Amino acid sequence: MKKVGVAILGLGVVGGGTYKILKEHRELYQKSHKIDIVVEAVLERDIEKAVALGVEREKVAANIQEICSNPDVDIVVEVMGGVEPAKTFVLDCLHAGKSVVTSNKELFCKYNHELEVAAKKNHCGLFYEASCVGGVPVIRALLDNLQGNKILSMIGIINGTTNYILTKMSAEGVSYQEVLKEAQKLGYAEANPTADVEGYDAAYKLSILSSLAFHTKIPFSKIYREGITEISVTDIEYGKKFGYVLKLLATGKNGDNGIEVRVHPAFIKNSHPLASVNDSYNAVYITGDCVEDVMLYGRGAGALPTGSAIVGDIIYCATHSNYQYSTFKNTAEASPSTKFIENFESAYYIRLNAADKPGVLAKVSSVFSKCGISVAQMSQEGQTGEDGCVPLIFITHTTRENNVKKAVSLIDASEDIAKVAAVIRVVE
Ligand code: HSE
Which of 110, 205, 222, 247 is catalytic? Predict the structure, then answer.
């Protein structure tokens, strides 16, 4: 039986989950794939943590060189996260002829071109299913199964932390800050939640997924990014009245005029399949010109779901000799021929705090008209406050981002009309 030696760099949540799966399923893979996968080494500073997981002391490597020079190691699993030292370690392993499986979205998003060059040069595999959407097999679907299509669009809920927070805010009517604190206590959010709540994590993933989907390099720098920290329960509640659910969406579109890639909170109709993706679950809704709509749904994080993606890559690597790389020319920057759309089209939810007096609506309408914005629905909510103002909510027809920005600055500049309290994009 073919023996496959694995080394794991980092025994945190995902590394620990991967170790457990490999150990518990060793016989299963012997039977199903005729391969014997053995963890030959781990790189983990906390030796006792490794030992507690069941790793023999002599298998805890002192440094990366020990792993690179270990002839029993065929595949290295990098689950350390962050750019350094992960990047140096992965390059060292590739240069030593080891194939690499990584869950590191930031590293892969920013340096996949450099890693791919090293992998090709050394005839090694480079696998990254676990870098995007945890246990949901979206990378392989894009690399293989959906290749017959021109992918037209991709809308994803690809960050579990923010989906958990928004689901709780909506279900319990509690503020962002309160839910964040609770999520941190339960381990759903990191002590420093910036990468998740400001949309960086989703943007790294969108960069990787949209590059594969659209067959062209989509660098992180081209992704418009906005997080959920400014979202208020007030807007979630008003949105419900219009039949909307609020989600942090990662959107990629490949149209005749170019590509748009963006991560931001957005309202979607509660009948949309993504509207029922709640708590820490993730989903990616892909539209191809032949297949039409496909939705992949599941656990986007966690020890065993992400470990499942890693082990899938290990098995794939061990059972294939012709490695697949990108479906596009993988350069550091975007190709000069790729056109990106920044002034994208969307419908919008706009909440104004408006003076409750005659003529205000006419003035607001005149600003919208001047900016080329057509109103689809409008509603005046609640009672006039002590400041003489009342919430006015507009849902626009599809318009352009710059039209809305212009309208917002004109309304905010007017002394006596209204102030813009919230602007949220709406998926039609
Ligand atoms: N922190 C991520 C999330 C999981 O909340 O979805 C790893 O990318």
Answer: 205
Residue ranges lining ligand 1, Cβ < 6 Å: 105, 159-161, 196, 201, 300-301
Distance 285 CA to ligand 1 centre (A): 18
Distance 162 CA to ligand 1 centre (A): 9
Q: Whose CA is nearest to atom 2 of ligand 1?
A: 159
pTM of the model: 0.97
Give, for all 428 residues of the chain, the pLDDT tens digit. Answer: 999 999 999 999 999 999 999 999 999 999 999 999 999 999 999 999 999 999 999 999 999 999 999 999 999 999 999 999 999 999 999 999 999 999 999 999 999 999 999 999 999 999 999 999 999 999 999 999 999 999 999 999 999 999 999 999 999 999 999 999 999 998 889 999 999 999 999 999 999 999 999 999 999 999 999 999 999 999 999 999 999 999 999 999 999 999 999 999 999 999 999 999 999 999 999 999 999 999 999 999 999 999 999 999 999 999 998 898 999 999 999 999 999 999 999 999 999 999 989 999 999 999 999 999 999 999 998 888 888 899 999 999 999 999 999 999 999 998 778 899 999 999 98
- Output the CA 161–ligand 1 centroid distance in Å: 6
Residues making up the chain, counted from first to last: 428
**Residue 322, SS3 per DSSP:** coil
**Number of Cα atoms under 13 Å in the Cβ half of residue 62:** 1
CA dihedral 399, 400, 405, 406 (to 10 degrees): -80
Known active-site residue 205: yes
CB 74 within 8 A of CB 5: yes
Nearest CA to 310 out of 2, 3, 9 is that of 9
